[in-house]
Design brief:
The complex is a heterodimer of chains A (181) and B (158). Chain A is of the alpha+beta class. Chain A has helices spanning 17-31, 51-54, 59-75, 91-103, 106-109, 170-180, and strands spanning 7-8, 38-39, 117-119, 125-131, 134-140, 145-151, 154-161. In chain A, the strands form 2 sheets. In chain A, strands 3-4-5-6-7 form a 5-stranded antiparallel β-sheet. In chain A, strands 1-2 form a two-stranded parallel ribbon. In chain A, helix 3 packs antiparallel against helix 4. With 158 residues, chain B is of the alpha+beta class. Chain B is globular, with a radius of gyration of 15 Å. In chain B, 40% of the residues are buried. In chain B, strand 6 (90-93) and strand 7 form a beta hairpin. In chain B, the strands form 2 sheets. Chain B has a 6-stranded antiparallel β-sheet with strand order 6-7-4-1-5-8, with helices on both faces. Chain B has a two-stranded antiparallel sheet with strand order 2-3. Chain B has one domain (12-140). Classes of the chains: A alpha+beta (181), B alpha+beta (158). The A-B interface holds A 15-16, 80-87, 90, 93, 113, 115-116, 118, 120-124, 126, 128, 130, 133, 135, 137, 139-148, 150, 155, 157-159 and B 20-21, 24, 26-27, 29, 31-33, 36, 38-40, 66, 68-71, 111-119, 122-123, 126, 130, 133-134.
């Protein structure tokens, strides 16, 4: 397949969006490029890249594409998907996660590894950011959600959040800022 | 060897790890849900490692491979019973017909369908996961096709 612009293809070997972004920035410096660069996070999934969108120097665009793919995979799960009677997440829960990802600031979304959007055996979905011993985690249930963070051994969290798809709890934002920053 | 009905504080407790359900291969990291019970249950299956050979235990874990269901055996973790208790959980003997060394980690909470795990419960799982990571208690199986463990001596950092 021919791309009329440089393609950085080895990002798939990098373990985290942070590492991938650094690689992109480094490549850009070396190429002295300001535009017309394509960020390929998974070369196996290249079909028709939209050149107009790839001109923008915004790695989160591709990360967000992967969020959609990841959720589509989760949505396809069938009853007993783990061999121990696991239930698939309901449409309601998948929809909540999508809504949450839509209001998630790009600065946080960029650092979310799609593998860390995962289904649980009782039909909920977890989104997690992990770096060394620090973690920020959100779990979406049928009625409510919860989150917790462990940053430098300090624990913070909240149960039974009803409006996480319209309002990011301040402690969640604080935790993510500390983890990413 | 007779197996006491009560799990001793200093017993080694083994938990099988399956990919991708419990293991993030790209990052070489254990998932938090390694310690999550099935829905409506409060039991995480483990093996009392002091009463079984490594090959026998491994053979049992491999027998429960189910690649079509996101469960491909890739290794195991070992914790000490007292460490599990210190994380706010307990370990109870629950012998099975084909595995008398079987036990369960109990968290004190069974999750219903569609119910997110309360933060307090997840902090317990984080404690267990932290032990695995900090004390390097995950033992990756370098040859899952072999009938014998080829990873050398199991050294437990206390």
């Amino acid at each position: 397949m021919f791309f009329p612009f440089p393609v950085i293809t080895d990002l798939v070997t990098l373990s985290t969006p942070i590492a991938a972004r650094r690689k992109v920035e480094e490549e850009l410096r070396q190429l002295k490029m300001q535009e017309s660069c394509c960020f390929v996070f998974n070369p196996n999934q290249i079909n028709e890249l939209d050149k107009a969108k790839t001109i923008s120097l915004n790695p989160s665009y591709f990360i967000q594409l992967n969020f959609g793919e990841r959720l589509a995979t989760i949505k396809k799960l069938e009853l007993d998907w783990d061999g121990y009677g696991a239930v698939p997440p309901s449409d309601n829960i998948v929809s909540k996660v999508l809504s949450f990802l839509n209001i998630l600031p790009k600065s946080f979304a960029e650092y979310l590894d799609t593998e860390y959007i995962y289904p649980n055996p009782n039909g909920t979905i977890t989104i997690e950011w992990r770096h060394q011993k620090n973690v920020v985690s959100i779990e979406f249930g049928e009625k409510t959600a919860n989150f917790y963070s462990i940053i430098n051994q300090e624990i913070s969290g909240e149960n039974n959040i009803t409006d996480i798809t319209s309002r990011l709890p301040s402690n969640l934002i604080k935790g993510l800022n500390q983890l990413i920053g | 060897m007779s197996i006491p009905s009560q799990v001793g504080d200093d017993e080694k407790i083994m938990r099988g790890v399956y990919h991708p359900m419990n293991f993030h291969a790209k990052k070489n990291e254990i998932h938090l849900n390694l310690f999550r019970s099935p829905k409506n249950k409060d039991e995480v299956s483990v093996i009392r490692f002091d009463f079984i050979s490594i090959d026998e235990a491994r053979s049992y874990l491999i027998k429960h491979n189910n690649s079509e269901k996101r469960r491909t055996y890739c290794g195991f973790c070992i914790l000490i019973a007292i460490e599990i208790i210190q994380c706010g959980c307990s370990v109870v003997s629950s012998p099975l017909a084909d595995l008398p060394q079987h036990a369960d980690i109990i968290h004190g909470y069974a999750l219903k369908e569609g119910e997110e795990a309360p933060v307090e419960l997840k902090i317990k799982w984080e404690g267990l996961l932290g032990l695995v990571n900090e004390k390097k208690r995950y033992f990756h199986d370098i040859n899952t096709e072999s009938s014998m463990w080829e990873g050398g001596e199991i050294l437990i950092n206390v």
